[in-house]
């Protein structure tokens, strides 16, 4: 049982609105949108992903569209870096993907990676609170990839997301929310440099702490995201084969 029983209805509404805003509308995207391994070194990849986000908190669901735009660069065989922005309320993210285990055969076997990242979003003030919010988050996903042949891969990514929100007002409330999420995606190459990546994700709010209200464990907050990722590039071209001159 949480510590919020008995607080005034007005305070509860303020608390619920803040949690909903941070958790669903501005905290972060839970999408993975990629394989379990970094892209090839020296190559770049562009990611475009229209999606639908749904957030339910205390029986007040929110459903809305979202578009994610991003890019990645292969630093080495085992590391790449990425940046992403999501709309309509702009959010910005940076991450790195690190290979922990590579299958000996890329047509089958199991890959493991990590994709730690951080993000930031600025939320302008509204009618309930004219002060803007600054929202930062840190994410730690574990990437589990099953190779299915032909470059196809099933990717399951459990992750922890910690979101910190602070108001710009002098007496503004600060909130810290810890979420557990999992995405399941399928990478399907259509050409050597274009793949489609449908993905489904779900998140559960584990712990919420709001300044002036206290903390609540295992809160009633659930989010979901359905995305269609379009991945351009990320694969090195095979070296040219030299054919001896028959003369």
Helix-strand layout with pairing:
Layout: H1 9-26, E1 44-57, E2 62-76, E3 79-87, E4 91-101, E5 110-114, E6 117-123, E7 133-149, E8 152-167, E9 174-191, E10 194-210, E11 214-217, E12 221-233
Antiparallel strand pairs: 1-2, 1-12, 2-3, 3-4, 4-5, 4-6, 5-7, 6-7, 7-8, 8-9, 9-10, 10-11, 10-12
Give a short synopsis of this structure:
By secondary structure, the protein is mainly β.
Structural description of this entry:
The protein has 1 helix and 12 strands; from the N terminus they run αββββββββββββ. The protein has one helix at residues 9-26; strands at residues 44-57, 62-76, 79-87, 91-101, 110-114, 117-123, 133-149, 152-167, 174-191, 194-210, 214-217, 221-233. Strands 1, 2, 3, 4, 5, 6, 7, 8, 9, 10, 11 and 12 form a 12-stranded antiparallel sheet that branches. Residues 1-14 have low confidence and may be disordered.
Name the features.
mainly beta; 12 strands; 59% strand; 247 residues; disordered N terminus
